[in-house]
């Protein structure tokens, strides 16, 4: 017992010896850096909010930026007045949703002799491959001009499939290409509402539609995703379209001018965000984009935590890696204005794709909790409370129906910031093999819908390594211990937040979030 007391005493003495000369200065530097990043993010969010206010107040004038006029059949030339459109559907082992996506694409209202449906099937499961091919033949039998294309390999993943798809001879007759991921279901009038923008405005390269989530009410996790993505579409995409005619292509639910795509070098697989890569390169050629927020395409959110983690890794690692590879190219570009280059480098990439992830995790899940152990380091209230509160409230604008879930969204976003931060560092430093990791987001389609008379899917037993996520648990333990210390000795009452946040990490760590799908 005496030895234990002596050990604790020595540890306490060592802590006091290193705290003043090392820990305190380091913590002050970290707090200053985090506060600076918080201000960057705050200014960016307020700026975009003001842009949206202006957009809403001046809606009529902004709508006149581009000519839109319905394309009508000519009595003399017939359907030849309609541009030839290619519709690409890349897919990989999409057993649950392939029928929905192919059916929706084949149901697009456009002259049948002026559209080609191209199914790019990279499936490795021979059974699924046969099912997809059979579905294509079924639609071909109905008179639909549909092509079923496969490759011998999966080189380049989605980018490789799209690039290979553009090489077929029949594509040369097409002027525009619409792209839909396998879980997307466009309404029949999609082409009627998008193609006129490109047909009547030769400076436009891309028309991007908004996503509409068919399973947003499936569980709390999908509601949280809806809040984040609604903000992305309602604010970020709208602001980019209104101010700079530039935003990141969302990889699906958009229509490209093929000549613009080819001018920029086509699809590249150097990162896991081939869509953003293409958008930046096309924009640097001087082309403009338009976002059509009132045109929505139905799709599915990942509803299992495992699938969402993989998706968020790709969505954070890819942009950081692309930023590293393109920053010099953007800075040296001569075809766009200095202001647009600043916007792309600073706002689009640095603040939204890097700072936003880093400050969320490092500040609110590492540095702020650590300050309870070092009372000499104080975080001003405006940095600890006011700025994050305003940023969170601004985010809720995109999904008013979920405003009452704002606290849950904050806790959930902080949990996911762990993986986004890790992905960001992997992308920036190209560390390890996960920098180019591409895991297709698993879709459940109808699989999780309980049919009448059938039993609901039971939660499978917990298996270490599948349902338990140690990173989340370790962070949860750290936050819980900091909360206990603050409860006993602190004066800032951070323990309220720390206990809630640690609980969120524990819930995620033990896999009790999202739905439980067989073999997920």
UniProtKB/TrEMBL annotation:
Family as reported in the entry's similarity comment: Belongs to the glycosyltransferase 2 family. Plant cellulose synthase-like A subfamily.
Pfam family name, one: Glyco_trans_2_3
Membrane-spanning ranges: 29-55, 342-364, 384-412, 468-488, 494-517
InterPro entries, per the entry: Glyco_trans_2-like (IPR001173), Nucleotide-diphossugar_trans (IPR029044)
Taxonomy, superkingdom: Eukaryota
E.C. no: 2.4.1.32
Organism classification: Eukaryota, Viridiplantae, Streptophyta, Embryophyta, Tracheophyta
Catalysed reactions, semicolon-separated: GDP-mannose + (glucomannan)n = GDP + (glucomannan)n+1
Keywords, comma-separated and alphabetical: Cell wall biogenesis/degradation, Glycosyltransferase, Golgi apparatus, Membrane, Transferase, Transmembrane, Transmembrane helix
A GO BP annotation: cell wall organization
A cellular-component GO term for this protein: Golgi apparatus
Protein known as: glucomannan 4-beta-mannosyltransferase
Keyword Cell wall biogenesis/degradation: yes
Top-level enzyme category: transferase
Organism: Helianthus annuus
Residues covered by the Glycosyltransferase 2-like domain: 177-370
Membrane topology (UniProt): Multi-pass membrane protein
Keyword Transferase attributed: yes
Compartmental location: Golgi apparatus membrane
Leader sequence residues: none
């Amino acid at each position: 017992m005496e030895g234990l007391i002596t050990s604790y005493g020595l540890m306490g003495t060592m802590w006091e010896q290193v705290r003043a000369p090392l820990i305190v200065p380091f913590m002050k530097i970290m707090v200053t850096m985090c506060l600076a990043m918080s201000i960057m993010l705050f200014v960016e969010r307020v700026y975009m909010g003001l842009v949206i206010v202006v957009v809403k107040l001046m809606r009529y004038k902004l709508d006149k930026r581009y000519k839109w006029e319905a394309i009508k059949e000519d009595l003399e030339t017939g359907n030849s007045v309609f541009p030839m459109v290619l519709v690409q559907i890349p897919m990989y082992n999409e057993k649950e949703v392939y029928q929905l996506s192919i059916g929706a694409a084949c149901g697009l209202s456009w002259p049948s002799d002026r559209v080609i449906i191209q199914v790019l099937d990279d499936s490795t499961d021979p059974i699924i491959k046969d099912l997809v091919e059979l579905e294509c033949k079924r639609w071909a039998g109905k008179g639909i001009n549909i092509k079923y294309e496969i490759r011998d390999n999966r080189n380049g993943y989605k980018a490789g499939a799209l690039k290979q798809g553009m090489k077929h001879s029949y594509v040369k007759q097409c002027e525009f290409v619409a792209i839909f991921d396998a879980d997307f279901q466009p309404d029949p009038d999609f082409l009627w509402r998008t193609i006129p923008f490109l047909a009547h405005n030769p400076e436009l390269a891309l028309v991007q539609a908004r996503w509409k989530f068919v399973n947003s009410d499936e569980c709390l996790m999908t509601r949280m995703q809806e809040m984040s993505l609604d903000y992305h579409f309602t604010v970020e995409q709208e602001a980019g379209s209104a101010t700079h005619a530039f935003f990141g292509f969302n990889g699906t639910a958009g229509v490209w001018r093929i000549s613009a795509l080819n001018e920029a070098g086509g699809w590249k697989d150097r990162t896991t965000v081939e869509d953003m890569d293409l958008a930046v390169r096309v924009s640097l050629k001087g082309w403009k984009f338009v976002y059509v927020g009132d045109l929505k395409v139905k799709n599915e959110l990942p509803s299992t935590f495992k699938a969402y983690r993989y998706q968020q890794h790709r969505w954070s690692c890819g942009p950081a890696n692309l930023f590293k590879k393109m920053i010099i190219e953007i800075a040296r570009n001569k075809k766009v204005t200095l202001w647009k280059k600043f916007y792309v480098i600073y706002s689009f990439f640095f603040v939204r794709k890097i700072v936003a992830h880093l400050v969320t995790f490092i500040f609110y899940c590492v540095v702020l909790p650590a300050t309870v152990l070092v009372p000499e380091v104080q975080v001003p209230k405006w940095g600890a409370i006011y700025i994050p509160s305003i940023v969170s409230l601004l985010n809720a604008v995109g999904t008013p129906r979920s405003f009452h879930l704002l606290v849950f969204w904050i806790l959930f976003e902080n949990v996911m910031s762990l993986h986004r931060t890790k992905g960001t560092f992997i992308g920036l430093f190209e560390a390890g093999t996960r920098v180019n990791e591409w895991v297709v987001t698993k879709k459940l389609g109808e699989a999780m819908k309980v049919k009448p008379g059938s039993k609901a899917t039971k939660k499978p037993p917990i298996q270490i390594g599948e349902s338990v996520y140690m990173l989340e648990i370790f962070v949860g333990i750290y936050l819980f211990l900091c909360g206990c210390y603050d409860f006993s000795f602190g004066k800032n009452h951070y323990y309220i937040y720390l206990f809630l946040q640690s609980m969120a990490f524990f819930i995620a760590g033990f896999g009790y979030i999202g739905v439980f799908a067989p073999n997920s």
